[in-house]
Write a structure and sequence with these properties.
heterodimer; A: alpha/beta; ABC transporter transmembrane region fold; Rossmann fold; 2 domains; four-stranded antiparallel beta sheet; 19 helices; 62% helix; elongated; disordered N terminus; B: alpha/beta; 3 domains; six-stranded mixed beta sheet; 12 strands
Chain lengths: 601, 579
């Protein structure tokens, strides 16, 4: 919802994800490295562009020859020459067009390759980021980088850079020609060219934050849209479509305004540089005329000097325009690079061990942890779970139960103390192997767009249909699935209104049943499943839990009565521990909790 | 784009004005070299130093005018295209948020998202660029053709014959590229979806070590996007070289034909020279025009996708109420909430709810119990009219919900769904949920929902930040926040769908007590899995596969309903042992 002031600052937008706004040179270098990966294509593009321009320059020369042959007058036209020239012209043009076409193919390939690589790199890094990153940034904002910003970078890169290269050649050639004709007049350019450069630089500096804002606000809009669309049902239930629309309008306006401003200022460059060129043309013309009147230059010289100076200023104009367009690419590139550079999970230690066969001995020793500095969630927490034991964690909501799971799976690292699996500090293990050693079923079910079969078999590639059906049967979801018209091939859509939360949980339980890790984490795994079904899947759950070190978080105390060890947590501290019987006998907080569930009030 | 023309229409005058200004700028721009020619050809040879300065000043004037006109026109085009985009996006978002759940399922959220941002962005760009490029090129093209016709009609015919060929190419390329761009946006939807799934499922993916697999999945859609993007780019790249090829070949023909005409004495060789000059102008203009078509193709694909959503027929429209029915019912006490023989199926195959009847008077409470997938949430979906029943009627105060306009229907409810929506913002934002509620109401809602305590414990209290998807709150805190949201609006009907499943029993019990004492006149519908949560309800329904297999009070059901008794025993049985 973005707080009170959604327009002024696009939230905690991604723009700052990696902190620094990078210097332009650095960005340019990194963009170049992306292009440089396809060096062959780049060289090919250069060759093609030079040859097609050469050919198209050759055309007018040929037509000039033809005209000379025609110019001989009525009845005297030299048709041999005319036909020869015409044939050559046709050949030239055919080749030139062919090269232009090929050049486009090469450039399209090159730029799409860069886009693909950028998206690839972003995704690679997203996959390596700590889970906390995704709690901080809006999904839609991240998505906007992959879709919009990558596209913006490449639109400019593919079209503009090549043009700059081409322009440079023309500028240099024209400049040399002008020097040979009238060095005095070139002095005018000593004034106007720097003026162009300074102006372009100044404007680019002004425009760049505008483009930055354009990217950020589009990202913020996308973030908002994504969030609100996912909450659509609730918004409608409260009849707040209008209010949300109002908020949307604010974000929309902010995005469009940023676009308009960037566009309006960005497009100043072209006409302005054009103006400077026209001024220099006027100066050349006026002073040239004065020089001619003084008899310092000939009329023909003056005329060709003017022609060259027009040739000279044309590309400068282009380049200035391109530089202003590149600003949008820079702004977008900042966001792209910020995602690529965002600090990933600390890499596994170089000598990190692969956690192979696991006995399942888990020890948490004097652990301190906080998500935000200064707001400790867990203090001095210890626990020892023997292989094959069942540890239950109970306590009021917000007592830090889920945090323990985050630490066991190493989604976060502890601030103090350590966690050991089979006596090894988990920070010395390869994360992947540690996580593979656990099977985890969370309260927040996660299903993806795909068939039910794919969703159940997700954790175990190569699971046969029989395996999947067996798991589904054990999780008591088979009969529901088989009643669907498409059965196991039913595609789950992202909104999935026709499938209930409880059914989703059963699907994720079925998914877990296919795994055979030695440790099991159940975080409110059956909270949305009705008691009857829960009872029915008990047998299967017990089967699932057999021989594994289990950590169970549950509010339904009935499910954890048989635990070997019950931890009662309150405000981040373990206040009691023991078995059900001993805790009931102790007549403490656990007993209160336990009895409260039957409180008839 | 045609389908979105109503958004452009209000700005037609403005756009025309900006184009006229652009035109003025273009004319000024042409004057600069023209004046220069005059200086070089006429003024200098005649030796008038004064006139050199006068014409020089004129040149500067034209250059300045050109600058001004272009800046103004560009600004105007940015403004008008922005305003048009603003309106399109507004309507699109409005339309999207009024799509029925069924329609949204079909469209998918990721596609809706990219239509709202990426596609409308393309449209914005299309509008701005066409205005910027759309004046000069066509004018120069037309002007060039007219000039040539005036010089030598037979020769210019050669070039004019070429124009339909170019038009044909542009036509075919556009026809081929628009579907490709449409497809590209479709693939972009997929990319968005994979990203979305990976971000929301990051914990599960990491836990299952599926990172590599997901990378493969992303690479696949990434490649797909690259391929279609490449194909579209290559195909639209045909226009430019082939148009210039055709024109250039035409020029070659002109040279040859001109040679014969000059030879025959029917035209001057100077004409051919001039022809060549204009020809370059026409060629450049032509390339400008084809570029517009390329931009247009991409924008068109996006415009179609946007227009498709805008044209989605309204689902769940409000029916007009039959008058006599209302009169007939106003005699006795009218039930507050009533289901009459309701049947419903999501897919059209099987029934999710069949022949359900419910009758609740104001202030009564209904508990719904049943196995996972037995149709509990479906009842709520029908009551709140997210779907319409296939048979039967849902009535509130005797009025069919289909006849109640949403702005009347929705405020009656306070609702918490399973796994409900928590937005980024503050706690107060989330409880207020866009409504105009006093701080007192928020506080009262929070207290009754048993949320006040944890809120007070957070730094910032009510203004404490809530992270994306409520990720800095525990499951139980989220649920209490959601219940606070439902209570804060003083609803007539309170609907809690498994809303306290993550609460520990003590908190749940306190919540139930607060509801009973503070919300007496509120008709309450509770969906729960715990008998203890609903045992005090006035009515209890036990559902199985969309059928009512038991209904009555707790005591009655304990007598009459085998299923209920079993559930109660498994849960309450422990009561005896525990106590």
């Amino acid at each position: 919802m973005g707080g009170k002031n959604p327009v002024e600052e696009p939230g905690r937008g991604l723009r700052a994800a990696s902190g620094a706004q990078q210097p332009r040179g650095r960005i340019l270098y990194r963009l170049w490295r992306y292009m440089g990966r396809s060096r062959l294509l780049l060289v090919l593009a250069l060759i093609l562009s030079f040859s097609s321009s050469l050919l198209s320059l050759y055309g007018p020369k040929l037509s000039g020859e033809a005209i000379n042959a025609i110019d001989l007058g009525a009845g005297k036209v030299d048709f041999a020459v005319v036909w020869r020239c015409a044939a050559l012209m046709a050949a030239c043009y055919v080749l030139s067009s062919l090269f232009t076409f090929l050049l486009n193919v090469v450039m399209v390939r090159l730029s799409r390759r860069v886009s693909r690589q950028m998206r690839h790199d972003i995704f690679e890094n997203l996959a390596a980021l700590p889970v906390g990153f995704f709690d901080r940034y809006q999904t839609g904002d991240i998505i906007s980088v992959v879709t919009y910003d990558v596209d913006t970078v490449n639109q400019s890169l593919s079209a503009d850079l090549l043009q700059i290269l081409q322009s440079v050649v023309t500028v240099v050639m024209s400049f040399v020609m002008m020097l040979t004709i009238a060095p005095e007049l070139v002095l005018i350019f000593v004034v106007t060219v720097p003026a162009t450069v300074v102006f372009t630089k100044w404007l680019a500096g002004k425009v760049r934050p505008m483009f930055r804002r354009r990217s950020a606000r589009l990202g913020a809009l996308n973030g908002f849209v994504e969030e609100m669309l996912s909450g659509q049902k609730t918004i409608r239930a409260y009849g707040q479509e209008e209010a949300v629309l109002e908020r949307f309008d604010e974000k929309n306006k902010a995005a469009v305004d940023a676009y308009t401003v960037a566009e309006a200022y960005g497009t100043i460059t072209g006409p302005s540089v054009n103006f400077i060129n026209n001024v220099s043309l006027t100066l050349v013309c006026v002073f040239g005329s004065l020089l001619f009147l003084k008899g310092r230059v000939g009329l023909g010289d003056l005329s060709s000097f003017v022609q060259y100076s027009r040739k000279f200023s044309g590309p400068i104009n282009e380049v200035a325009n391109i530089i202003s367009e590149l600003q949008s690419a820079f702004a977008a590139a900042e966001r792209v690079l910020s995602l690529i550079d965002a600090q990933p999970e600390a890499p596994d230690a170089p000598n990190a061990e692969e956690l192979g066969e696991v006995k399942g001995d888990v020890e948490i020793r004097n652990v301190d942890f906080s998500y935000l500095p200064g707001q400790p969630i867990i203090h001095d927490f210890s626990l020892h779970a023997q292989p094959g034991s069942l540890t239950a964690i109970v306590g009021p909501t917000g007592a830090g139960k889920t945090t323990i799971i985050n630490l066991l799976m190493r989604f976060y690292d502890v601030d103090g103390g350590a966690i050991y699996v089979d006596g090894k500090d988990i920070r010395t293990l390869k994360r992947d192997s540690l996580r593979r050693a656990y099977t985890m079923v969370l309260q927040d079910t996660w299903l993806f767009h795909g068939t039910i079969y794919d969703n159940i078999a997700y954790g175990k590639p190569g699971a046969t249909m029989e395996d999947v059906v067996r798991a589904a049967k054990a999780a008591r979801i088979h009969s529901y699935i088989s009643r669907l018209p498409e059965g196991y091939n039913t595609i789950l859509s992202d909104n999935g209104t026709s499938i209930s939360k409880g059914q989703k949980q059963l699907l994720t339980i079925a998914r877990a049943m296919l795994l055979d890790a030695h440790m099991l984490i159940l975080d409110e795994a059956t909270s949305n499943v009705d008691t009857r079904t829960e009872q029915e899947i008990q047998a299967a759950m017990r089967e699932l839990m057999k021989g594994k070190t289990c950590f169970v978080i549950a509010h339904r105390l009935s499910t954890i009565r048989s635990a070997d060890h019950i931890l009662v947590m309150r405000d981040g501290r373990v206040v009691e521990q023991g078995t059900h019987e001993s805790l009931m006998a102790a007549d403490g907080f656990y007993r209160q909790l336990y009895l409260a569930q039957f409180e008839a009030a | 784009m045609g389908r979105l023309s109503k958004y452009i229409r209000p700005y037609v005058g403005y756009i025309i004005l900006s184009m006229v200004i652009k035109l003025v700028g273009a004319v000024m721009e042409l004057f600069v070299p023209y004046l220069m020619e005059i200086i070089l050809d006429d003024v200098v040879p005649s030796g008038g130093r004064r006139w050199v300065f006068i014409y020089g000043a004129l040149m500067l004037l034209c250059a300045g005018g050109c600058l001004l006109a272009n800046i103004i026109a560009n600004r105007m085009s940015a403004i008008s295209s922005g305003k048009i985009t603003l309106a399109i996006r507004h309507d699109l978002f409005e339309r999207l948020s009024s799509l029925s759940a069924r329609q949204m399922d079909q469209l998918t959220v990721s596609s809706a998202e990219s239509r709202l941002t990426s596609d409308t962005y393309n449209i914005n760009q299309l509008l701005a660029r066409i205005q910027r490029l759309g004046v000069r090129a066509p004018i120069l093209l037309l002007g060039g053709i007219v000039m040539m016709l005036g010089m030598d009609a037979p020769l210019s015919l050669v070039l004019i014959i070429m124009l339909p060929a170019i038009a044909l190419i542009v036509y075919f390329v556009t026809r081929a590229s628009v579907p490709l761009y449409t497809k590209e946006q479709g693939v972009l939807d997929k990319v968005v979806r994979v990203l979305q799934e990976n971000i929301t499922g990051i914990r599960v993916i990491k836990a299952l070590s599926k990172t590599e697999y997901e990378k493969g999945r992303f690479n696949q859609v990434n490649q797909e996007l690259t391929d279609v993007d490449q194909k579209a780019g290559i195909i639209s790249g045909i226009t430019n070289p082939s148009a210039s090829l055709i024109l250039n070949l035409g020029l070659t023909v002109v040279v040859v034909a001109g040679a014969y005409r000059v030879n025959a004495g029917s035209c001057q060789s100077g004409v051919i020279v001039a022809f060549l000059q204009y020809f370059v102008m026409i060629l450049n203009a032509m390339l400008g025009v084809t570029r517009i078509f390329v931009i247009w193709s991409k924008g068109e694909a996006s415009a179609q996708r946007v227009a498709d959503v805008l044209a989605t027929p309204a689902d769940l429209t409000v029916l007009s109420a039959p008058a006599e029915k209302a009169g007939e019912e106003s005699h006795g006490a009218v039930p507050h909430v009533e289901f009459r023989g309701v049947s419903f199926s999501y897919t059209g195959i099987g029934q999710n709810i069949s022949h359900l009847s419910i009758c609740l008077m104001r202030g009564e409470s209904l508990g719904i119990l049943g196995a996972t997938g037995s149709g509990k949430s479906t009842i709520l979906n029908l009551l709140m009219r997210f779907y319409d029943p296939d048979q039967g009627q849902v009535l509130i105060d005797g009025k069919d919900v289909r006849t109640i306009p949403p702005e009347e229907l929705r405020p009656k409810f306070g609702v918490v769904f399973q796994n409900d929506f928590v937005a980024e913002g503050t706690i107060a934002d989330n409880i207020r949920f866009f409504r105009h509620l006093e701080d007192d109401s928020l506080q009262r809602g929070a207290e009754d929902a048993q949320a006040a305590e944890f809120i007070a414990a957070k730094s910032g209290g009510m203004n404490a930040p809530v992270a994306v998807r409520g990720n800095n709150l525990s499951g139980g805190q989220k649920q209490r926040l959601l219940i606070a949201r439902a209570l804060a609006g003083s609803p007539e009907i309170l609907v809690l769908d498994d809303a306290s499943s993550a609460l520990d029993y003590r908190t749940d019990a306190r919540l139930r007590r607060a509801l009973r004492s503070g919300y007496r006149n509120v008709t309450t519908i509770l969906v729960a899995q715990r008998v203890s949560s609903i045992r005090h309800c006035d009515h209890i329904l036990v559902l199985s596969d969309g059928q009512v297999i038991g209904s009555g009070t707790h005591e009655e059901l304990m007598e009459s309903c085998e299923e209920y008794r079993m559930i109660a025993h498994t849960q309450m049985g422990e009561e005896k042992e525990g106590a």
